[in-house]
Amino acid sequence: MTHYRQWSAAFGSYFTILGLWTAFGPGTLMATSPRAAPLALAAMTLAYFVATPCVRMLWQRLGFARTLALMGAGVGLSLACAALAPQWLAVCAPLAFFFGSGSYTLCETRLLEDLAHSGQGHRFGRARKWGSFGFLAAASLGGAVFSLGGVGPSFGLALGLCGLVYFGCCLALARAVAQAPNPVQIASAATAAAAAPAPLAIDSATKANGSGPTVSATDSPRQRWWGTCAISGLRLGETISTTWFGAYWLSTGHGPLQTGLLCALPVAAEFWALWRGAALLARFSTERLMLLCCVLSALRWWATPLCESLWCAVPLQAMHAFSFGLFYPASLIWLQAAFADNFFQARYLSESLTRALSAAVSFAAASWVILQWGHGALFALSGALAAAAALWWWRVARP
Predict the structure, then answer these.
(1) CA gap 293, 274 in Å, rounded
(2) Which residues contact 204 (CB under 8 A, 6 or more apart)?
(3) Structural domains present in the chain
(4) Which 3 state secondary structure label does DSSP give 163?
């Protein structure tokens, strides 16, 4: 993996922003702008719809480096404006998520394609794990700081500073890879000359040993479609539960420090899974790993409303964080192997379905679902989605 430090810094700084927002963003937004909060939360989720096609177009016209620098600048400026004018948070946050999701999708796709075309897709977590570390640090340190002076203006200032740091990391990464050739283009040229298929994330020898996507799960268009839906189902459950967990924990009477710690500490399990999961991804089939992850996530989400103490909430969060640390790279490897040159479009389809439904749930939840049934209804929905995804992976992973 080339430019490892720059990739790691970009992932780490981006998820630092997400860590702050996940723990304290929705609650702060609903407290400062109760009328605008539902629309802002929905707009943040839907920003991916516009950002991803925009990034694809800019990538083709401007190249990776310039597009990344442009999107990173958008994140930094949006969050800086929110820090200077907290009353604009409901407007600046969706803008920041537009540029942030676009730049992150760009980085993730480019890195995975580079690794896939060198037969090293399972090493994706080597750089991505620093995103988990950034999330952990932001939520825990943010909770400690906000417990002293209140969330309020300090939250906006922290977001602004982190946004500017992310912009700097994007510039460093863009500069590092500006002169580097794109392995995807090289592979395409070689394929055209040799009339041979491009290599996938998992080579044929690895696939024959039982790891990577199975033939039956990738060769049929119908099965590829259902596999994409299963990935989207768990990602939808993840988005719903992550969006509202911080607000739920605050609603149980816990303060910012405990909320930040609870959102942060279990992410150590995700960091470990991304760090050491390459061996598992290379040894076991992605379908079996995703089946296990879906089961663990369903159990965690169904149990969350029953546990309002740190002693049981932390293990539940850690169980899910570990499973997500395996599921996320496994799902990307599965999509890359199943769709090859159409990987970007397949990933966009999967994420689009997730974002659209998440926006609808976020809007309804902020408006009346939580008032009528409480946060438990959202966690029950996440668990049901994970269970449905598990049924599909059980079907394709069984002998």
Answers:
(1) 13
(2) none
(3) 4-397 (1.20.1250.20)
(4) helix
Report yes or no: 164 and 82 within 8 Å, Cβ to Cβ.
no
How does pLDDT run across 311-355, given as a tens digit for each residue?
777 788 788 788 888 888 888 888 878 887 777 777 777 776 676
Nearest residue to 342 via CA among 233, 221, 232, 226: 221
CA 231 – CA 338 distance, rounded (Å): 13
CA distances from 131 to 136, 168, 270, 275, 389 (A): 9, 16, 10, 11, 25
Cα–Cα–Cα angle for 394, 339, 8, rounded to 5 degrees: 90
Long-range contacts of 374-377, Cβ-Cβ distance < 8 Å, separation of 24 or more: 374/305, 375/244, 375/247, 375/248, 375/251, 375/305, 376/305
Q: Which residue has the tokens 């379905």?
A: 353
Give the whole-angstrom CA distance, residue 206 versus residue 197: 17
Nearest 5°: the CA angle 111, 116, 119 is 130
